[in-house]
From TrEMBL:
Residues 110-142 are annotated as: Disordered. Keywords: Cell projection, Cilium, Flagellum. InterPro entries: Flagellar_operon_YvyF. This is Flagellar protein. Residues 118-142 have a biased composition (Basic and acidic residues). It comes from Heliobacterium chlorum.
Length: 142
């Protein structure tokens, strides 16, 4: 049977459902998340520091929840995550609305230019050859 060492607590466990950490840690993680949620339900608009102090959950973990979209940054008074592209403060996810739009447009453009990339026909005749043939016809004309 496939066993793994939990990267968090080093317990040996059987990974189930693609879990990276052991069931004990999963439960702890869930409890942390629930604590943060509970606190925010009771004190909406708390500061990040208040939540950290009250729940014992570290700031990075809370910011991770926000990035994963499990908690809104707007639930906090001051928590802000930044757009990964332009560093604008956003409330959830990885990109601001503007960058999301920009990115979608860029993707569309990339797809569009790919489609219109039909092999360009050589409409310009090669000037060198033309001159050469012209020379010949000149000679023949005489
Ligand atoms: Zn563990
Ligand atoms: Zn942005």
């Amino acid at each position: 049977m496939n066993v793994k060492n939990c990267p968090r607590c080093n317990r040996i466990f059987i990974p189930q459902g693609g879990r990276r950490i052991c069931p004990v840690c999963v439960r702890e993680e869930e409890e942390k998340y629930e604590k943060v949620r509970e606190y925010l339900r009771e004190y909406p608009g708390a500061t990040l520091l208040e939540v950290v102090n009250a729940t014992g959950v570290d700031e990075d973990t809370i910011l991770q929840y926000i990035k994963e979209g499990r908690i809104e940054a707007s639930d906090f008074q001051d928590a802000a995550i930044e757009c990964e592209r332009c560093r604008t403060p956003i409330s959830s996810g990885r990109l601001c609305a503007k960058c999301q739009g920009d990115l979608a447009r860029e993707l569309q453009q990339a797809a569009g230019s790919f489609r219109s990339q039909t092999p360009e026909r050589d409409t310009k005749s090669r000037p060198r050859d033309k001159m050469f043939t012209a020379d010949i016809t000149d000679k023949f004309d005489k």
